[in-house]
């Protein structure tokens, strides 16, 4: 097969893969449901993350697997537990700025954790999004009374693909590292102890 035919085939496959991934507006967003003046009196004694087993998981190596959970960077295993561990680490770090006297519990329920398939990460350029959504709520650790409403949080993040992904990994910026850092910043912003990281972007992919 000639190089020109091979290149044309790759371009065709790539265009077909992107056909189901329109340029869409993605965002990091959360509500102003927590008063920072109140939150500064809290100390997060526990982080409870739930990744419902009702969420669908895909191991398909396609451009945009149709599932709630798509996570490939760690070895094949229980993806629910892997996502739980990532979100627990991120939320614990994000809540570490609260050093008040009142002990509280941060409860997170994952709704979607859609990172990249191997094919998307390797073959595309200037496309791809980490699509992460969860519900967060704060409870009094002793009485279990809610101190905030259940707040839907969207934590979308531009994903690195192709040459950019290779360069990022060489600097230690893996998908896991970037997602953990981003979600930690989102939690800190939501709790009022960090910068407001809300904002949107447009990008092909999911």
How much beta, percentage-wise? Answer: 25-35%
* Rg over C-alpha atoms, rounded to the nearest angstrom: 19 Å
Q: N-to-C terminal Cα separation, in Å?
A: 32 Å
Number of strands: 8
Number of domains: 1
Helices, by number, come to 6
Overall form: globular
In this structure, how is the largest beta sheet organized?
8 strands, mixed
Poorly predicted residue ranges = 1-22
Q: Determine the fraction of residues in helical runs and give it as a percent range.
A: 25-40%
Average pLDDT figure: 89
Q: Would you list the SSEs in sequence order as H and E?
A: HEHEEHEHEEEHHE
Q: Which structural class fits the helix and strand makeup?
A: alpha+beta
What does this structure look like?
There is one protein chain. 33% of the residues lie in helices and 27% in strands. With 206 residues, the chain is of the alpha+beta class. It has one domain (21-204). Strands 1, 2, 3, 4, 5, 6, 7 and 8 form an 8-stranded mixed sheet that branches. Helix 3 (79-94) crosses helix 6. The relative contact order is 0.23.
